[in-house]
Design a protein that fits this description.
Number of helices: 11
Strand content: 15-25%
Helix content: 55-70%
Distance between the termini: 15 Å
Structural class: alpha+beta
Largest sheet: 7 strands, antiparallel
Number of strands: 7
Radius of gyration: 44 Å
Order of helices and strands: HEEEEHHHHHEEHEHHHH
């Protein structure tokens, strides 16, 4: 369970990683350069040196519907030795806003967010798998527990029979010494004692094996020497069960049905995705940008830079270029529609066909799982009824065996029958007692199986796994 419990935790982390793609993306860029190049136009000078100082900040946000928005603030300082520059150093700033929205292919939550949708269901499938493992483990633990109870009770039966056989052997030996019992009777009594001694050793060995099995399921360290002593007694209250009620609960709660449903939903999501991918691409793009310009502006004589005569200059800084942006001095916008019709999308729809086949397969698997549960419910109802009848018959058989042993003991004491008949009836009684205990234990195990089939267990809530 500890191993299986890590699977949904890892799937949750995978979903978080996918959802991180929808977190805002911030980018900050700074660059500084100094270039020196020969002039290629006589009036600008023979040697041109330019210094650049660039700073940009960008924010991009994706949305689950395929929408993408971005905002960029850009500022550039240019300081040049090029002759006849109107503004030098100059500050050019830009604020730009972009919005892109798919209108056909990639539009909608099922198309743009398919990975996150399926990842969320993968978590649910992993949770269902954990619950299924928990149900099976609980059933195995209960089965092993009641197996240990049966083994310990069987040891008590064998020890009781051994004690009775030893007492009878002592009386037989005493009778042989005074001549009322024969050597054959002594030999029969000794054989009976030896048989029960062997049965006690065998029963004790079975207890050790059942303890090891339960320890393994409970994750006990091997060879710890700890003894497991069950507190429950092999008693049971018979239940009246309804197949219709059990089936209703099972279909609502069984993790296998949850897994089948989620896989079918994932298959339908794939069909929707590939159907969307078969559409042409039609994207809407909106852009808005505002410019700002500032710096040291030179005023030439007659407003003609070619005169080379500067009559004034207006000094500005980077802040003024940002002010132009805020004032909307130089506003721009554009709207674009892009249509893309790929040839492969028109001729090949293999992805859509494959996803439809997977959807049909998932539907059939869900129907098969439902049918399997129906057979399980039918079987457990029959099993509980049969084991209830076995308890009644084994109890009746044990009561008759007790009466038979009492009667045969009286006849043996009166010398009417030999000890071999008494030993046979005593052995039948021991077997009847063990059979009665096993019948009760089998019914308790069947009740544990009923819980597993219904998909309900109080133990899961206490373990923090859910019911």
């Amino acid at each position: 369970l500890a191993i299986e419990r890590l699977v949904p935790e890892m799937d949750v982390l995978s979903l978080k990683a996918i959802r991180e793609n929808y977190l805002p993306l911030f980018a900050l860029t700074y660059s500084n350069s100094d270039t020196n190049n020969p002039g290629t136009w006589g009036v600008e000078g023979s040697n041109i040196r330019q210094k650049y100082d660039n700073l940009s900040f960008n924010v991009t946000q994706r949305f689950a519907w395929g929408t993408s928005i971005g905002a960029t603030l850009y500022s550039r300082m240019t300081d040049t030795t090029r002759a006849y520059s109107l503004i030098n150093p100059s500050y050019n700033s830009t604020f730009q806003f972009n919005l892109t929205q798919p209108l056909l292919r990639g539009f909608g939550d099922k198309a743009a967010n398919v990975e996150a949708i399926k990842a969320a269901r993968t978590i649910q499938i992993a949770d269902a798998s954990l619950r299924a493992t928990a149900f099976q483990t609980i059933y195995q633990v209960e089965e092993a527990y009641w197996g240990l109870v049966a083994a310990r009770e069987n040891l008590k039966v064998q020890e009781s029979s051994l004690a009775g056989s030893r007492d009878l052997l002592a009386r037989t030996r005493a009778g042989a010494r005074i001549g009322t019992e024969s050597g054959v009777e002594v030999l029969n009594a000794e054989t009976e004692v030896a048989r029960y001694e062997d049965a006690v050793l065998s029963a004790a060995r079975i207890i050790q094996s059942r303890e090891d099995q339960l320890k393994k399921l409970l994750n006990f360290p091997a060879g710890d020497g700890e003894r497991l002593v069950p507190l429950d007694q092999p008693t049971v209250e018979l239940r009246n069960v309804s197949a219709e009620e059990i089936l209703r609960i099972a279909l609502d709660n069984r993790p296998e049905m949850e897994t089948a449903r989620r896989r079918a939903e994932n298959s339908r999501t794939d069909v929707d995705y590939y159907r969307n991918q078969s559409l042409p691409r039609l994207d809407l793009s909106l852009q808005f940008w505002a410019l700002g310009v500032s710096g040291v502006k030179y005023v030439y004589q007659d407003n003609n830079p070619l005169t080379g005569i500067v009559i004034d200059k207006i000094v500005g800084g980077r802040g003024e270029s940002f002010s132009d942006i805020l004032k909307g001095k130089y506003k721009n916008w554009s709207v674009n529609l892009t249509l893309e019709v790929p040839l492969w999308g028109m001729l090949s729809r293999s992805g859509l066909a494959r996803s439809k086949a997977a959807e049909e397969q998932a539907r059939l698997q869900m129907e098969k799982q439902k049918r399997d549960i129906e057979f399980e419910v039918q079987d457990i109802v029959r099993e509980l009824a049969a084991k209830a009848r076995i308890i009644a018959s084994s109890t009746r058989y044990r009561e008759l065996a007790e009466k038979q042993v009492a009667s045969e003991t009286q006849r043996y004491q009166q010398g009417l029958v030999g000890s071999e008949w008494l030993f046979k009836y005593r052995q039948d009684l021991a077997n009847a007692r063990s059979a009665e205990i096993q019948a009760v234990v089998d019914y308790r195990i069947a009740l544990a199986r009923l819980d597993r089939i219904r998909g309900t267990s109080p133990a899961l809530a206490s373990a923090g796994i859910g019911n």
